[in-house]
């Protein structure tokens, strides 16, 4: 499923759970686990899987190679390997990616003065020449080459434009703009993409991609501004895992565009009402993918995490529960089933009302008379004062107790 810059009519989803996501402290995955996740990412419908950094370790090489072999089929996603802008890294990535039907080498070098001075100890003209040579080298292994000017968010825009023009002229088909340290604000990210479109003469020959970290909790909002200004590939991870505060979360980006598609459609040149999907993601696979990544990485999802947290579709207050039972639209902006959850969860606790209690009783198979219901409800309220959440077992015990004591 090769992607050409002029064929992008949707927002491409580049998943980096297995590369940047795995850089989360403590989230190491073995080869078999990476392969399992890659298969699920393919079912989810991501366009590109960044499978790892082959030069980093023999394990990463093997994982990228196996994913390229098993998941990188003719109608499967593009399989990508990361490489610094060095000959050894690029050759190693090319070797690992060899079995994939569609392969991408993603090479990067920093462009911010802070990185040039303190990390690379190189001048601007030196990094321009390195980027040119290494993009050209990557191009000898595959047509599909992505270039990232690391720390673009803190780079001088004029130098960034020059670097991107240079990378595209050397063969890059995707130029990725990373906010490596999660520093810039959403409106600044939007303006940066608009500036790139206006000032890089050959920009139409490449897909503009964005990559960002969540140090200030702004990554998803920044990406959405970037989309409005011309970004057509989003680099993200499942559950937002990644270096430090993590990367932009795939599920949040996809569902924001899905739920508000009338708002985003015009930025893709469509009628607001268009029902055509904005991404290739099968949203019904989102919850399952989130659970898989959480259990294999051991990184728990916070309960109040948007979209996939255990409370994301749960309603605790009596007023909200009553509203949702009458009509879900009262307190839900999306259907739990759209991310593959079986149903929303009414959490029964001390704030729950009779209506919620009766509905749960029906769901677990009890139809009580008004009289029995009143008595059981009083017992339930009593228990709820002592216990934070009331389980189905508690309810069953109350009902049996009440009905047998007659
Ligand atoms: O955050 C970053 O800059 C990266 C690059 C390698 C794209 O992960
Ligand atoms: Zn990153």
TrEMBL record:
User: What is the protein's quaternary organization?
Assistant: Homodimer.
Name its co-factor(s).
Answer: Mn(2+)
> Binding positions for Mn(2+)?
20, 211, 213, 247
Q: Which reaction does it catalyse?
A: acetyl-CoA + 2-oxoglutarate + H2O = (2R)-homocitrate + CoA + H(+); 3-methyl-2-oxobutanoate + acetyl-CoA + H2O = (2S)-2-isopropylmalate + CoA + H(+)
| Keyword Membrane assigned | no
Any GO BP = L-leucine biosynthetic process
Q: Which family does it belong to?
A: Belongs to the alpha-IPM synthase/homocitrate synthase family. LeuA type 1 subfamily.
Q: In which pathway does it act?
A: Amino-acid biosynthesis; L-leucine biosynthesis; L-leucine from 3-methyl-2-oxobutanoate: step 1/4
Kindly state which keywords UniProt assigns to this record, in alphabetical order. Acyltransferase, Amino-acid biosynthesis, Branched-chain amino acid biosynthesis, Cytoplasm, Leucine biosynthesis, Manganese, Metal-binding, Transferase
Q: Where is the Pyruvate carboxyltransferase domain?
A: 11-274
Name the gene.
Answer: leuA_5
The protein's name: 2-isopropylmalate synthase
Q: Might you give the EC number(s) for this enzyme?
A: 2.3.3.13
Part of the full-length chain shown: 1 to 406 of 542
Q: What does this protein do?
A: This protein is a Fe-Mo-cofactor biosynthetic component. Catalyzes the condensation of the acetyl group of acetyl-CoA with 3-methyl-2-oxobutanoate (2-ketoisovalerate) to form 3-carboxy-3-hydroxy-4-methylpentanoate (2-isopropylmalate).
Q: List the molecular function annotations (GO) for this entry.
A: 2-isopropylmalate synthase activity; acetyl-CoA C-acetyltransferase activity; homocitrate synthase activity; manganese ion binding
What are the GO cellular component annotations? cytoplasm
């Amino acid at each position: 499923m090769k992607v050409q810059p002029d064929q992008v009519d949707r927002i491409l989803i580049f998943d980096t759970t297995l590369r940047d996501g795995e850089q989360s402290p403590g989230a190491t995955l073995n080869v078999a686990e990476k392969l399992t996740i890659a298969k699920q990412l393919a079912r989810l419908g991501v366009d590109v899987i960044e499978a790892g950094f082959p030069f980093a370790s023999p394990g990463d090489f093997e994982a990228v190679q196996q994913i390229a072999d098993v998941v990188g089929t003719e109608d499967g996603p593009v399989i990508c390997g990361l490489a610094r802008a060095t000959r050894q890294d690029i050759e190693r990535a090319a070797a690992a990616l060899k079995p994939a039907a569609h392969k991408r080498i993603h090479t990067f070098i920093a462009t911010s003065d802070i990185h040039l001075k303190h990390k690379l100890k190189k001048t601007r003209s030196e990094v321009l020449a390195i980027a040119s040579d290494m993009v050209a080298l990557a191009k000898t292994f595959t047509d599909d080459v992505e270039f990232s000017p690391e720390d673009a968010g803190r780079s001088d825009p004029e130098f960034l434009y020059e670097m991107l023009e240079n990378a595209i002229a050397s063969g890059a088909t995707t130029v990725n703009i990373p906010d490596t340290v999660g520093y810039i604000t959403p409106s600044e990210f939007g303006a940066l993409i608009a500036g790139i479109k206006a000032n890089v003469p050959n920009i139409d020959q490449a897909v503009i991609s964005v990559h960002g970290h969540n140090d200030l909790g702004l990554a998803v909002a920044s990406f959405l501004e970037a989309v409005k200004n011309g970004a057509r590939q989003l680099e993200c991870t499942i559950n937002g895992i990644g270096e430090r505060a993590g990367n932009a979360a795939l599920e949040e980006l996809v569902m924001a565009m899905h739920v508000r598609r009338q708002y985003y459609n015009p930025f893709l040149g469509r009628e607001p009402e268009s029902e055509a999907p904005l991404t290739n993601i099968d949203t019904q696979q989102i919850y399952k993918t989130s659970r898989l990544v959480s259990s294999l990485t051991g990184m728990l999802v916070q309960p109040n995490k948007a979209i996939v947290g255990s409370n994301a579709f749960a309603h605790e207050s009596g007023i909200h529960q009553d509203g949702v039972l009458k009509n879900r639209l009262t307190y839900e902006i999306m259907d739990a089933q759209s991310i593959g959850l079986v149903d929303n969860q009414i959490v029964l606790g001390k704030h729950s009302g009779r209506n919620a209690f009766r509905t749960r009783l029906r769901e677990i198979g009890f139809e009580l008379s008004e009289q029995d219901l009143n008595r059981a409800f009083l017992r339930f309220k009593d228990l709820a004062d002592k216990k934070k959440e009331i389980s189905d077992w508690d309810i069953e015990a109350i009902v049996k107790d009440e009905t047998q004591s007659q």
